[in-house]
Amino acid sequence: MDYLGKLSNLKKLSLYDVDLVDRIMLICDANAFPKLLSLDLYSVSKLESWLVAQGSMPNLSNLTIRCCLKLEMIPDGLRFITTLKKLNIMMPEEFNQRIQVVDNRGGVDYDKISHIPLITFEVFP
Q1: Sign of the CA dihedral 101, 104, 108, 111?
Q2: What is the pLDDT of residues 34-56, one digit of tens each?
Q3: Is 103 left (phi over 0), alpha (psi -120 to 50) or beta?
Q4: What is the distance between the alpha carbons of residues 97 and 99, in angstroms, rounded to a whole number?
C-alpha cells in the first residue's frame, strides 16, 4: 500500500481476491492516495486490521469492503475522510453489528462512519 499510495494520479483502486502470505495490516499514511476517489476491497484474505492516518485519501468518495473475513473492524481514520459519500459493506454479521444503527443506537464503531450519507449492508454468509 505504501507504493500504491504514492501514485499521485491514482483515482480508483480495486483489490480483488488478494491472497496475502501472512496476517497483514493495511496502512494508509498521511498524504497517501491524494486523488483516490474509489477504493474496493474484495476478498482480501488474512487482512485483520487497517490503519488510515489523518490526511490519507482526502478525496475518497466511494468505499466498498466485501468478504474480507478476517478484518476485525472499520478503521478509525475513516472519521477524517469527510468526502466519503457512499460506503458499501458485505461482511459477516458480527462486523456489521459494530457499525449498524439498531433501535436508534449505533454499534461500537458507528461514530467512525456516521458522517457518510449512504451506507449499505449485506451479510456475508
Answers
A1: positive
A2: 999 999 999 988 888 889 999 99
A3: left
A4: 5
Domains and their CATH numbers in the chain: 2-123 (3.80.10)
Q: Judging by beta carbons within 10 Å of its beta carbon (0-12, 13-18, 19+), is residue 113 exposed, middle or buried? A: buried
Measured distance CA(44)–CA(19) in Å, rounded: 6
What does the pLDDT look like over 55-90, one tens digit per residue?
999 999 999 999 999 999 999 999 999 999 999 999
CA atoms 94, 54, 61, 51: torsion sign: negative
Distance of CA 1 to the CA centre of its chain: 13
Coil, helix or strand at residue 11: coil
Looking at the chain, how many residues does it have?
125
